[in-house]
Amino acid sequence: MKLKLDAENKTMHNTSNVIRTTVDTIVEEIPIADMHTHIYPPSFGSLLLWGIDELLTYHYLIAEVMQAAPLPVETLWKLTRREQADYVWEHLFVRRSPISEACRGVLTCMQSLGFDAAKRNLKEARLYFSEQNIDEYIETVFRKANVSYAVMTNDPFDGAERNVWKTNYDEHPRFKAALRIDPLLSNWETASNLLREQGFEAGPSLTDSALTVVRRFLDAWADRMNPLYLAVSLHPNFRYPDDTPRTRIIDSCILPFAQDRDIPFALMIGVKKLINPGLKLAGDGVGKTDLSNVENLCLQHPANRFLVTLLSRENQHELCVLARKFPNLMPFGCWWFLNVPSIIEEITRERMEMLGLSFIPQHSDARVLDQLLYKWPHSRRIIANVLCDKYEDLMRTGWTVSVEDIRRDVMRLFSKNFESFLSADF
Ligand code: HDL
Ligand code: ZN
Question: Which candidate, 190, 261, 247, places its Cα nearest to that of 219?
Answer without folding.
Answer: 261
